[in-house]
What we know:
By secondary structure, the protein is an alpha+beta fold. Strands 17, 35, 37, 38, 39, 40, 41 and 42 form an eight-stranded mixed beta sheet that branches. Strands 7, 8, 9, 10, 11 and 12 form a six-stranded mixed beta sheet that branches. The longest helix is centred in the C-terminal third of the chain and has 42 residues, at 1003-1044. The protein is flat and about 135 Å long. The two termini are 24 Å apart.
Amino acid sequence: MENITSNEGIPDLNEELNTIQIESTSSNDGHEELIRKRGIITKLMKNCELSAKEGDRVYIIPKDWFDKFFSEELKSENDLGPIDVASIIKDYEHFVLEDYNSVPYTSVPEPLFLQFQEWYGITDLSQPVVTYLIENENGELVTEYNKRIFRLHHLTIGESSRNNYTLNQSYIVLSSLNLYSDLKVKAIQQFAKNQNYLNMENHEFRVWIVEDNETNSANTALSSYEITPLQFLSLSSKELIAEDMFHKLLKSTSSQPCDIIIETRNLNDGKWPSYFFMYNNPMTMTGIVGLSNLGNTCYMNSGLQCLVHIPKLRDYFFYGGYEQEINLDNPLGYNGTVATAFGNLIQNLYSYHWNQQQYQSYSPNRFKMTLGQANSMFAGYMQQDSQEFLAFLLDSLHEDLNRIHDKPYIEKPTLETSEELADENAVKQLAKKTWDAHLARNDSVINDLFVGMYKSTLKCPTCKNISITFDPYNDLTLPLPISTVWNKKVKIFPQKSPPCILEVELPKSATYNDLKDYVATYSNIDSSSLFGCEIFNHQFYRNFESPISDSNYLPVQELISETDDIIFYEIIINPGDIILPVINTKIEEGFNRPSLFGVPFFVTVSDEERRNPFLIYQKLEKLYTNLSGGYIQLRETLNNENQLNAIFPNLVAKYGKEDMEPINDVIDTLYDPNDSTDGIFTLKTISESRDEIEIESPSKTQPWIPESNINYKLADDIFNFSSVILRDIYYYNKMENQTSDAENASSTDNSNSEDNMEISTDSPVVDGSDLGNDESNHKPEKYQSDLDKLCIESSSILVCEWTQKSIDEVFTDDKPIDWEHPALLENKELLLAQKQRNSASPNIITLDSCLKLFSKPEVLGINDSWYCPKCKEHRQATKQLELWNTPEILLIHLKRFENQRSFSDKIDAVVDFPIEGLDMTPYVVDSVVEDGCIYDLFAVDNHYGGLGGGHYTSYVKNNIDNRWYYFDDSRVSSTDPKKSVAGSAYLLFYCKREQNPNGIGNSKLQDIIINSRTKYEERWQEILNSQTQLYESTKDIVSRETSLNIGYTPDSKSKSCEIEPNNSPSLTNSHSDTTESETFELKQDKNGSESSEDDILSRKSTGYSTESLEVGNLDINEADENGGRRKLRLLKKVYGSDTNPEDEDEC
């Protein structure tokens, strides 16, 4: 608009500028040149100040750069650099400036900016930022830093369009000096971008302006891009932009920001959405609406469909009765956000049906977002459990709508004496007191509909003390009476017989101790002598006897998986014995490091054996005889008749007869050096530092297992830790064969020791003394016997190092039983039970059997033991749960998932439940039932698959047409309720039959629903009246509007309707084109004319750069003049901290 952006006086200024430049004396001195330019700018500023008027163009530049230009410290203009406009603006299109406190800016008249640009230019990423001088309330000229913001909306009756929440809102930014005609053009341009699928040639448009002070509220109609006719009529202030408004300035709008609503009509039918109710009768939807899957949200959709079809709950939220009960003071609630989101969901599902399609789909994005903010479990898109979702939702709704704002502290009522426990009236009084105490702290619509109470009875097995308590519930979890058997084959390593394997069958809830007792019974081994562990990769993996093992609290089905290798070792411990783990290694050809093989086991070692490695070796040989399943040729030992002189002459010569005398006491344990049989393995040892928690007592008799990352290459020969005499006896043959004379005896001894073992740097070395076969050899000093020396400690690991040759000799294929192929231990009782189970016909599970099982007494597990106040001890008491009463909405949870750690442990058995006429009277222990106990099914939440994945759907009865429907996310179809009786049924929703067909039940809830329904009907009538008034007030404008409508053709979209800035020949920089939102010139329309306005008044002021206030931090609800901050809040989807990059294109 040329008249608005008129720059009268600028040609004179340019002429004067040229005169100044001609008159000035050129100088090569940078400082003098800078002074000259400052003089030019100062004179220009004075001239612009004298001629300033509203509508003059000004440019925004960094204040720091402007101040630096006039700074005394600046000596050369070379230090000034180009103008960095990009540093002060976030968005050129929407005129969003940076925070003034962080990046100050100021405005300069157009002649100044043009001169600055000619001298210094602007940075590569910068564009000129143009705004205008406007008059403020005091009649002063100020820079328009805060332009007019208009939020764009689309008025539509399309159902699919209403549910399309992915389209973000668009914004238009214009100067207050723009005309309403500019606003309409710009709005339609932006609308055309958003609705690019719309054929503009076949449509005409109307634009409404809405000035509403609550546009930022998430609950208003203007919170979405697309609005319905009902939402449109609910707006308190709306005005059609007609011909008589085209020449009005936008500064006349009373509120900031404003909303723009565009409606279209096809040229063929001629019906405007704003007149929708003039030719459509209002009617409520039936609620038969699918819910879109937002990404693994079927668990939410199925549960919501069950809830929103509860008539009383639906009416409570649909008619807005919940709004007066939102509790903003409850620290356990969510400030009403969950209740409001649920209410909006129901109102959307049951609101006016916008077209004639039978079934619709609604996208619950807002509800999902609110739910995720309340609980991070539901924030993402992972699959969740529908029952857990409903439990959280009902609890959140209860806390958001709790009518009790100040909860009193109330102790739980109890019965004090045994006489009261036997008195039926006393028990009833206890139930009443418990319910009253509950209502004193919890009173909501959820409590009115879903909450009942059950009776819990605990009986101590020792003192027979009984405890009775009452507790509320809002869902009834029922176990399924099916066979819950855990089956597993475990190995048993007896101490004196070959290994065997036993098939075990226990309840899934059985403990490790139950398993241990079972194995002990069928193997005829004392359970105290059994030690269980898991074997993996030829070494111990888990120690089930450890005080820190999971076996202390996990049931066997969670403790032991199907593929785990479980072995129970028989360990008979005598006083003074220690228990040592035994690991098997082998040296493979071409490798220095030993590798593991076979099965590890345990051995008990006495004090005598700890002093004599020969005894340990012989004990292990006997154990290997059992583990290998056959005979092992063992080396011969000496007997008491053997004479040391004859057997070990060299040792007697070395140590003397006196020192060798104690060997006679253990001679029967020594190997005969004349026996040519080699040992089947080399016995080594390595120590490990164990955690103190693994050692139960100072006796070191508690079995333990070594770590899995031990380097067994560091294991040392056990004889290197024994008495030196026993060590020399063990190596006697090798030393004697390799000794050529007494002088080489010592080195020969050392050499052979090193050949037979790997010695770590910390291990003792084989003694290198001469064997004394030369008379001239000197005799060693008196060598005292050290036969009492311990060769192993309680933290030692025995390592049996084999060669492949010895393995092949001991573990031969002709032996049917060995440690890898244990013998089968027959379990006749198990075989009989399995046979009977397989031959029996499958039992039909009924809801009746589940309810009976629920009330069946059970003995608490050891981990759930009850503290008896009379015994002052924890006892495995007998517990019984019984229903005291039932709520109006009975939510039954069939417990199909037994193992929360297993994806496959789901019970898919069919539970036969009644569709109508479920009589709960036999299961309710309260003898007085005032309102009956007959229930009818109205919804079923289904689950298909396992716990780790699957799919949820629902069967629901619609009480409006009394038909059943199957909801599978967005898909809805009619169905037969009998199909719901299947193995997928997970949650059952029953509604109690009303004894009074006209009654609503709870009187308080009844009053709320009746009152809210009355107000709802009154509001509807007001809306219809508003429709009539709107039609009558605007119908005469329609004919003129049609003719004045700014139509769209392919050419007009790109030419005739764009608003662009005035072009200036002085803008020579490549970035000199101002942005589209800064425009005020309406390009030629179809007739080639231009819009103009000549009544802009001139005002003189020096304040055009003095209101450079901060932009960007003001709260959007603050009603002050700094609309720039409000603008940033409105554009937060584009520039906020939670910016989604995909949102930027929407604006």
